[in-house]
Amino acid sequence: MTADSITVPETDDGIRVSAVWHRYARRGDRATVRGRAYTVYLIALFVLIYLVPVVYTASTSPALIAVGSPAGAAPAAWAIAVTVCWGAQLAGRFWGPLVIQPFLLHVFTSTDIPPASYLGTIARRRLAYVSTAVLLSACTATYLTTDLYRELGLALQGLAAAAGLSALAAVAWLWGQVRAVPGNVLLASAAGAVALAVTVIGRVAPGGGGGLWLVAGVLAAGAAVIGRTAFRSIPAIDLARLARESARASQAQTYALTGTLHHALDLYRPEPRRYTSALIRTDGTLRGHLTQGAIRALRTPGRAAAAVVLLLAGGAVLTLGAAAQEGRPALVSWMAGSVCVYLGSGWVSETWRGLRDELTLPPLYGERWGGVLARTLAWPVLAVTAGTCAGSGLALTTPWWPLHGESAAGTLLLLAGSLVLVLAARFLREMKLDLPLELLMPIASPLGDLSGLRIVAWQFDGLVAVVAGIGLISAVPSAPGATALAVAIAAWYVWSGLRRTGWGHRGLLTRLSRT
């Protein structure tokens, strides 16, 4: 979106807003034609190298998921719609469509122009862009993974459902920003209740209750109601909170563009609240390591609740993937469960960053290396292990995956090895500092400079480490061998993380000798 492309009604307020955007569009640091051409070049390169071969392969090979009938696809469509709605609301709470540059927001708020005059048009245009992106993404994902677009009738229903999903995602994104927490909880509960009720009705109704046509109609009607209410809430938005969100988004964008995405994510960590005095006993001494970790987790209840859900789900999915096909892991399920455990391991505790700071910053009162790891890692390791094992226990007790004897022993070995590898990958990620300058060196190839791929891999090195590690150990035919390989890879991850903090073999021996 270019600033000078925004149109507003020809009123006095609209003319003043247009003048501000006109001046801002001709600022000195605006995007150049060469910069836009380079962006187009990167998109074209991505399409030619990745998207075109994937689309061709999907069109010439059997579908991964057979839809069968619209009635059978409706429950999955409802589950995806509810997940997208919740995700859009959550994204709006942190970075909504009304977030603009702090300078521009300061200019507008310093006048008597009502917020609806300069925020309403921005919201409409950005919602249109997001809706288009969601529509294209949903259609592409459906085409690559299912056979829904192989028949004309199913394709029309799939397109209608994708259009309703895109509209709901866009307005839920705005709703998440302009409405308070009770309003967001109400919408999330209503979305889940409607999806559950319509799914149950479709199960008992003859003909599947309308199938994907019903999904599309309900999503479109819900998007219309939610969007109307959300746009009416724009004039009453808290401009002070919007200014804080815009300033934080601008700083996060600067971090992301300079190659330190982890610092950008740190800006959106929730601030701990309450229970500060609970960290200290009545005699003035600090509580134990595990107690401190549990109390600190309770000080950020939202992250703690999300971590519990991710660990339970990750443990269950990981176990089912490792136990599939008579002990031979189902790779996709195994990786998905490991990624869930990886995400939950970072949200369950804030001591990972404390460990990084203690290893990188100079000590104030001498070096006491022996207690650093125990003090900072006792709680996250115990919490991740307990949560994953609880999810694994839930999976093993289901009647669909009965395990006995050698099958159960092999599954438990794979689970233990995967858990060790995931914790090591989290350690590797949390020890990350600033972007190494050597990664900016160009990589010449017939397709152009590919150094951007290396930077992207460094930005998401934790996820890359988890996926690559699981892919390697899944190739080992025996469970003991796979577990041994997982432990070896985890040890390498831990050593690499220590080296990131400046703890090479000489530094490690020096600190141990001073302990």
UniProtKB/TrEMBL annotation:
**Does this entry carry the keyword Nucleotide-binding?**
no
- Name the record gives this protein: Uncharacterized protein
Q: Does the keyword Membrane apply?
A: yes
- Domain of life of the source: Bacteria
Keywords tagged on the record: Membrane, Transmembrane, Transmembrane helix
Residues spanning the membrane: 37-56, 127-146, 152-173, 185-205, 211-231, 304-324, 330-348, 377-401, 407-427, 439-457, 463-495
Residues in the signal sequence: none
